[in-house]
Amino acid sequence: MCGIVGILGRGPVAGQLVESLKRLEYRGYDSAGVATVEGDHLERRRAEGKLKNLEARLHGDLLSGHTGIGHTRWATHGKPTERNAHPHMTDNVAVVHNGIIENFRELRAELEQNGANFASETDTEVVAHLVESYLKNGYSPQDAVKTLLPRLRGAFALAFLFKGHNDLMIGARRGSPLAIGYGDGEMYLGSDAIALAPFRYNHVS
Ligand code: GLU
């Protein structure tokens, strides 16, 4: 079991994302990463092993985005390497995932046939490429995710960022938990309410 956090905030969120991931360490993990919307592009930092490795990476190469997602990974498909660590990204999408996409092999074969280049061994990466393909067909981010979900088999929680959308974060879940915190001008996502505990939110659903 891994951890997901997301913050749609008012200041740089990378530090808060890592602090929040620390509260999910009890769930176990082998690598970690964060991504933020940096102006008109998406940026990520990832590291194998403990969160202190990710912190060191962020220290040397700051992220300043106000909207971001973070992840601690418990590898199920692919080795616990930086290349397989989340977030997974395509041109316009970054995604973190908790769970298993059971039909990822079929989806990957279909995407590769249509020209997608995969960078990892994970089941998760098909999610980014599918959403990317819907965006390239003119779908909005919301419609792209709505179109994606019926194509996935398995239990999962997902959180997405989109290039060029500084104030948008989309979460989806089936079978796996994902809490939403409603703050004052801020929004939070987390694998459980413990992840959200440091934040000032009005209620969790
Ligand atoms: N199945 C995904 C992977 O292996 C996510 C694992 C997790 O829940 O951390 O990357």
Q: How would you describe this structure to a colleague?
A:
The protein is α+β, with helices and mostly antiparallel strands. It is built from 6 helices and 11 strands. Strand 2 and strand 3 form a beta hairpin. Helix 1 packs antiparallel against helix 2, helix 3 crosses helix 4 and helix 4 packs across helix 5. The structure holds glutamic acid. Glutamic acid binds next to strand 6.
How would you describe this structure in keywords?
single chain, 205 residues, seven-stranded antiparallel sheet, 6 helices, 11 strands, globular, binds glutamic acid
In short:
The chain has helices at 14-22, 51-60, 104-113, 125-136, 141-148, 193-196, and strands at 3-8, 31-38, 41-48, 67-73, 88-89, 93-99, 156-162, 170-174, 179-183, 187-190, 201-204. With 205 residues, the chain is α+β, with helices and mostly antiparallel strands. The chain has one domain (3-204): Aminohydrolase, N-terminal nucleophile (Ntn) domain (Glutamine Phosphoribosylpyrophosphate, subunit 1, domain 1).
